[in-house]
Design goal:
There is one protein chain. The protein is mainly β and about 280 residues long. The chain folds into two domains: about 170 residues, Sandwich (Jelly Rolls); about 100 residues, Jelly Rolls, CATH 2.60.120. The protein contains one helix and 18 strands. The strands form two sheets. Strands 1, 2, 3, 4, 5, 6, 7, 8, 9, 10 and 11 form an eleven-stranded antiparallel beta sheet that branches. Strands 12, 13, 14, 15, 16, 17 and 18 form a seven-stranded antiparallel beta sheet that branches. The chain is globular, with a radius of gyration of 20 Å.
């Protein structure tokens, strides 16, 4: 397993206070100050990663410099960009972005480091599902929520945005055998409780379940583990809010895995199971 650190190589802020300009200083801002909206962009060049790397985790680390309007509920929203940003980017000329996002509650923090799990985004970049054009950062834009983070231009190393990536690179083994990276995607619709089919993971090295809640209720999602496909034990469990995604990495080894879901009424999730196996 490898771990690598990337520093942001581009950062920018835009605001409708200056709709035909951009702001490129030692901070980036996002949110609403009661009069104007601020949004920011970040880019990390991860092209040095092995092309066949299997991403096990990707953590975006930001340094909160100022929270101008402290409140009990404040969220940071991170989106993937569809288009490049640069000197040409303004509030009136913004890059397009994907509608799905990663939400992180930052109301508990007044100053210092904030970690955002963007594993799903980086996995999609590496798989070729989407192209890495950078990230959009937003806070709530219908209430006072303005915050400032360190930018790539910050003189303090600790305040520069960072991306920590853990990955596995397939290796060549004796007898000329390789490791294969496989992926299975399916929807699971259910009422109250749901079970996926079981997966035979006896040849698996490592794997992750990426779950997106596509229904209209929060859903509790678990990975069940079994040695015989009959008796099941609960492993990793998370609650996934409406329209949100999360990643479940099993802690225990067994011969079979399956996904268990629960909600009060009708529920729906999209499941992507990415795993490495011996050929």
């Amino acid at each position: 397993m490898g771990e690598v650190l990337f520093l942001a190589d581009k950062s920018l802020t835009i605001t409708n206070e200056r709709p035909d300009e951009n702001i490129n200083t030692d901070i980036i801002s996002c949110g609403f100050n009661g009069n104007f909206i601020y949004r920011s962009f970040l880019n990390f060049d991860i092209s040095s990663l092995p092309y066949n790397a299997f991403i096990t985790s990707a953590i975006l680390q930001l340094f909160l410099i100022d929270d101008y309007f402290k409140c009990f509920s404040k969220n940071l929203y991170v989106y993937m960009l569809k288009e490049d940003f640069g000197d040409f980017t303004t509030y009136n000329q913004q890059p397009k972005f994907y509608s799905d996002y990663i939400r992180t509650n930052i109301s508990y923090k007044k100053y210092g480091l904030i970690n955002v799990n963007i594993t799903n985004f980086v996995q999609r970049w590496m798989s070729g599902e989407t192209i890495n054009k950078g990230l959009l950062l937003r806070c709530e834009e219908n209430k006072k929520s303005l915050v400032a983070f360190g930018s790539k231009n910050n003189s303090q190393y600790s305040a520069i945005p960072k991306l920590y990536i853990n990955f596995i690179k397939p290796k060549i083994y004796d007898e000329g055998k390789f490791i294969d990276v496989k992926e299975e995607v399916f929807d699971l619709n259910f009422i109250n409780e749901g079970y996926s089919r079981s997966f035979d993971v006896s040849r698996m090295i490592i794997g992750s379940f990426i779950i997106k809640n596509t229904g209209f209720r929060d859903v509790d999602v678990c990975v069940d583990v079994s040695i015989d496909g009959i008796t099941w034990i609960r492993d990793t469990e998370k609650r996934i809010c409406i329209s949100q995604s999360d990643i479940l990495v099993p802690k225990y080894y067994g011969k079979y895995y399956r996904i268990y879901t629960y909600t009060n009424g009708e529920g729906s999730v999209n499941v992507k199971f990415i795993y490495q196996v011996y050929k």
